[in-house]
């Protein structure tokens, strides 16, 4: 499970990781993407990645919840 919370630095790092993941999914299959590739493209450190996410599926979950949270909970 991801651990972002409301901290601005964590949120910024999570956004960078999500952007990196997005870029990678445009050029290769999800299953072939490694954590090393994600941190290289996003420009964050490995420790930062694992402080926020357990694995790459957490990144996808975080992105999905970010998109759907306003639709589901802000009524």
Topology:
Layout: H1 8-27, H2 35-42, H3 46-52, H4 56-73
Helix pairs in contact: 1-2, 1-4
Which oligomeric state applies? single chain
**What form results from the Cα inertia axes?**
globular
Give the strand tally: 0
| CA distance, first residue to last residue | 25 Å
The number of distinct helices, counting runs of at least 4 residues, comes to 4
Proportion of residues in helical segments: over 70%
- Give unreliable regions as ranges: none
Strand coverage percent = under 5%
Any idea what the radius of gyration is? 12 Å
Major sheet description: none
The SSE order reads HHHH
Average predicted local confidence, pLDDT: 91
Structure class: mainly alpha
Task: Describe this protein's structure.
By secondary structure, the protein is mainly alpha-helical. 71% of the residues lie in helices and 0% in strands. It is built from four helices and no strands. The chain has helices at 8-27, 35-42, 46-52, 56-73. Helix 1 packs across helix 2 and helix 1 crosses helix 4. The longest helix has 20 residues, at 8-27. The chain is globular and about 35 Å long.
């Amino acid at each position: 499970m991801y651990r972002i919370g409301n901290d601005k630095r964590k949120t910024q790092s999570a956004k960078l990781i999500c952007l990196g993941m997005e870029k990678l999914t445009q050029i290769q299959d999800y299953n072939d993407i490694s954590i090393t590739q994600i941190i290289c493209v996003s420009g964050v450190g490995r420790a930062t990645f694992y402080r926020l996410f357990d694995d790459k599926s957490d990144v996808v979950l975080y992105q999905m919840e970010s998109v759907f949270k306003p639709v589901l909970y802000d009524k």
